[in-house]
Amino acid sequence: MAGHIRWQADACRQLGSPLYSVLLDHVADDVLAGGPSADVLAGHENDPGPSALALRLMGSVHRLVLERCAPALAEFFPSVGGEAAAEEAWPALREVLVEHRGELRRLLALDQAPQTNEVGRAAALIGGLAHVVAEWPGPLRLFEIGASAGLNLRADKYRVALPGGLGLGPLDSPVVLDNAWQGRLPPLGAPLEIVERSGCDTAPLDATTDDGRLRLTSYVWPDQRARLDRLRGALEIAARVPATVDRATGRDFVRRIELVPGTTTVIWHSVTWQYLGVDEQEDVSARLDDLAAQADERSRFAHLLLEPRRRTPSSEWEFLLVLRIWPGGDERVLATAHPHGLPTTWS
Ligand SMILES: C[S@@+](CC[C@H](N)C(=O)[O-])C[C@H]1O[C@@H](n2cnc3c(N)ncnc32)[C@H](O)[C@@H]1O
């Protein structure tokens, strides 16, 4: 368990959360010393790696901070206005582990993996939609596999801000994706009209409830202010722009999708494909092939994905934005992106 926590500390260091990396190193030491961390985490020694025990612990602690239940630790958490003096935060975290042991153990016992809905990925996805409407102007029906809380089903309500006052999306949007795009920009002439927004997830979160908002916020690392700002803006938009997220697997979800004349039906997914088992991936792919075969100039169909992929079996993994539109169906790698979407570099 200490090894896993140490590994997560390193990952946080590399991925831009000095606060969590320092705190998790202390937690790992404390586990080995049999301190309060060991007590809170007892029984989780064999939790599987993908359940991300260290991030579940920190997410639970962050939740207490967001609920204003841990004022001394809050002093160090930028998400609630604190200063991230990471080295000084450990005594306050240790105190929280002692004082809130019962609540933390209850939160850890819930069968909940960390759940993030990354608003920055909208930068890539919305540029992909710009390519779709440039080719086939007209209304879009948007369907997302692994939509989490469905925040990116409202991607057209976010502002992609480009130099010189240019950009895409409402100027007064509470979500501003700054420095989002590099390279050869997508075509921006055709309007984006989304007439249907619907997604699925095996563990959906409801962005319109207090608990859903709290969970989404608690899993963003507290010293990553830009991500928190984007999330908070997206939650504001979710409260007024409806989108449904059904509790369903990708397989069951795509089975129910049909094409509608006069529209382009888009199925998209970001950083989700790896979570579908091989069987489910095959079933989803088969349904996409069915829909592709039914598509014509009146009932268009597009498959847009932002997923880790290799261009060839021997190349590096990259986060690629890939589009296919039918009729036609040629596969196009539109862009590469940071795992959190920003920046997206257009090919
Ligand atoms: C890394 S998250 C990405 C969420 C969202 N697409 C984004 O980019 O912010 C992966 C999501 O896939 C969901 N998921 C995992 N297995 C799934 C499945 N078989 N069918 C549908 N969703 C699934 C998870 O619950 C999680 O919300």
Summarize the structure.
The chain is of the alpha/beta class. The protein has helices spanning 2-14, 18-32, 36-41, 53-66, 71-74, 86-99, 101-109, 122-135, 210-218, 225-240, 250-255, 278-294, and strands at residues 140-145, 159-161, 167-168, 176-178, 181-183, 194-201, 244-247, 263-270, 299-310, 317-326, 332-337, 344-346. Helix 1 runs antiparallel to helix 2 (18-32).
General description of the model:
- With 347 residues, the protein is α/β, with parallel strands linked by helices.
- The protein folds into 2 domains: 2-109, no CATH class; 119-346, no CATH class.
- Helices cover 39% and strands 20% of the residues.
- The strands form 2 sheets. Strands 5-12-11-10-9-8-1-6-7 form a 9-stranded mixed sheet, with helices on both faces.
- The longest helix is centred in the C-terminal third of the chain and has 17 residues, at 278-294.
- It starts with a helix and ends with a strand.
- The chain binds S-adenosylmethionine.
Order of strands across the main sheet: 5-12-11-10-9-8-1-6-7
Total beta strand runs = 12
| Distance between the ends | 42 Å
Let me know the average pLDDT.
Answer: 96
Number of helices: 12
Helical coverage, percent range: 25-40%
List the domain count as a whole number. 2
Give the overall shape, derived from the CA principal axes. globular
Beta content comes to 15-25%
Give the names of the bound compounds.
Answer: S-adenosylmethionine
Low-pLDDT runs of 5+ residues are none
Rounded radius of gyration (Å):
21 Å
Encode the helix/strand succession as letters: HHHHHHHHEEEEEEHHEHEHEEEE
Structural class, by secondary structure, is alpha/beta
Regarding quaternary structure, how should these chains be classified?
single chain
Major sheet size, sense and barrel closure: 9 strands, mixed
